[in-house]
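Data availability excerpt. The first of two example chains:
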Amino acid sequence: MSDTRAAAVRPFELDGRVAIVTGGSSGLGAAVSRALAGLGARVAVVARRRDRLESLAGEIGGLALGGDLAEPDRIAEIVPEVADRLGPPEILINAAGNRFGTERAESEPLEDIRRTMDLNLVAPLLLAQQVFPYMRDRGRGSIVNISSISGRVGVPGIPQASYAASKAGLSGLTSELAVQWARHSIRVNTVAPGFFRSEITDSLYDSERGAEYLKRNIPLPTEGTAEDIVGAVVWLAGDSGRYVTGQTIVVDGGWTAR
């Protein structure tokens, strides 16, 4: 590798840094975990599906931690366990998220609203609180929250009021934490993906009507994948994004640019 190329690549390297990725058992969380490990990070992957976690952790030489992020007591255990087994975390990727229920806003049950908020918004805040002292003591850190374009624009035909509210809340949380913690060189950003193929969206992509809906609304002609989102997350995770904080970066094939 030439000196010029090495200098260009160096800010993206994560050798020796400890990262925590939630929602790591599949989709974007798994893709991000592989990318961070490939750049040298020691990665702890967190999700409920322990069998998938074990497989991924074995593949990347990481640490598998099972747990339900709807349970505050389990959240309180995760970060200390990572610090004890891998070292102080410097990177937190809050990729876990879900939409509970399919009711329209006027009928969405309170239970579904609370479950959505607990996983998509409360858990990322609690995990950020947990990693804060480690990042403060290290003198640097990066938190990347995975949001959605649903937090910025309404998406016709897909009822998701509480989901959209939780994702918009992530951007607000990001801005506030970024300002509060900047003095410790802790950066906090959000990546807001548009539609990309995953376990959740396969049926949409594979149906004729769904494929036409996506083609009509996404300006870029390529089909989005988890790997298309990874670049933005990697950029923000390490020194390559060291002067970026408090931002919501949209990666959506041009959906919100229309």
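And the second chain:
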Amino acid sequence: MKIVSTFISFAALCSALASGAASAGDLKVEVSGITENKGEVMVAVFNQKGQWLKQALVSKKVSANGNKVVVQFDGLPDGDYAISAVHDLNSNGRLDSNPIGMPTEPYGFSNDAVGNFGPPSFESAKITLTQAPLSISVRVN
């Protein structure tokens, strides 16, 4: 009886893992517009409107080499996301700005979203990820 119970538990676990894998997607972000081969490109993935540009679900940074870089995010749950990219020229880990708050380093968003007197909304930068791999482009200016 214990063997049957163990087998049923194992089968349930396998089923749960398989269904979880089926609802995950891979996101490839190509960041273009890089004009200087120095610093790092930081790419952040946000999945909540209330956390947009505050707390990323996941982020990565890569060396800025060439006029574009590619960053891969694997196994993201299906859903809506918004992406930000920053070319951190001095590798200090943040988007630098001038005294009045205007960014002084190149940045961009998914959907090439732009804002008026500030960053774009989560809604304007929103993309939808499903089980199929998705490739997007973000241009930094």
